[in-house]
Amino acid sequence: xxxxxxxxxxxxxxxxxxxxGFKAITARVVDMTDIPHASxxxxxxxxxxxxxxxVMLTEPEQRRVLMVEWAKxxxxxxxxxxxxxxxxxxxxxxxxxxxxNDVIAAEKAGAGGGADHFAAAGSNDRIWNSLQKLCExxxxxxxxxxxxxxxxxxxxAWLGPNYQMTAQVNLVHPGGQPQQAHRDYHLGFQxxxxxxxxxxxxxxxxxxxxxxxxxxxxxxxxxxxxxxLLPFSQTYRPGYAAWRRDDFRAxxxxxHVQLPLxxxxxxxxxxxxxxxxxxxxxxxxxxMVNLLQIxxxxxxxxxxxxxxxxxxxxxxxxxRAWQTGEINEAALDAxxxxxxxxxxxxxxxxxxxxxxxxxxxxxxxxxxxxIVADISQSEFEATLDRQDGARRA
Length: 393
Hints:
Elements: H1 19-26, E1 47-49, H2 50-53, H3 60-76, E2 80-84, H4 90-111, E3 124-127, H5 130-137, H6 139-145, H7 149-159, E4 164-172, H8 192-195, H9 200-205, E5 210-216, E6 228-229, H10 239-242, H11 246-255, E7 266-269, E8 275-276, E9 287-295, H12 307-324, H13 329-339, H14 363-373, H15 377-391
Parallel strand pairs: 1-2
Antiparallel strand pairs: 2-7, 3-4, 4-9, 5-7, 5-9, 6-8
Helix pairs in contact: 1-11, 3-7, 4-5, 4-6, 5-6, 12-14, 12-15, 14-15
């Protein structure tokens, strides 16, 4: 029930996903012998008291014991855990909150603020790249805020040393509506059609390359809408094909769990876990969480390539070949794959927002559109330059 859905092709298809199998997987319970250092697992979510366990983080062998336990949770266990008091410097959190509120006000005044991938417009405020913005606005606060040995160990447990940290603030106002159930970056940020073009084994690889986290900036009650989670759902291999299906989302709504968080708590979960922010039904709680999106250091190519320069050089050759019929679409796609940047990230989401989906237009897609439309060299180069400018930090 948890094998590739289409064995004849090695690709997943949404219509072949098995809801019965998914229900069986998500009905599993936590074996407490697998999480000996947890203080408990309410609603199938392991909880760790970092005030009690912080001494383990100072001893390398004991730190590894804890990291192995967390990694197993993410890989084959519930897929989520909470570190209570991960950030003990609450003054730094309050100071960072003030900075973030100033950033939100400035960005709303300037350009309308950031949009959310999975929530209704207007129900929240988003800060893209809150990591760099906090660092530049208040470096001393940044240093205190990110000096959490517990968070560092959690990231390293899944991704190893030298991970790449990014962060995005999500502020949900009273009355803010819930998100829809989804999986996350990488494949979760692609359209269903694009996700289906990746072989099944890549669906297995994607969750191993990133880790989702969040730092609570206030006390978060159930009424204020903490993240809805479906433990063990990350182990359903075709989940990136299934999460948009109405019946899978309906099961998520029936079976999900939510846990309150205190200011300074941190939550970590597999990007493949079915999850969604909850509705803020309070009258006065502005629910702020700094979402951590951490990536493997290995998710980068060996050489630095000036792909924009290559695209500009090759454009007249490919354009002429396409217009004269010298090259067909399959050959054109092959050349573009060797030349242009075919992935939307990393980018500056303030200036390069998603277009008609969850991800911005790629350089490869822009170049193919330009060739097919037979635009001029100067117009194409201007398009590339605008795209490059928008993607810069």
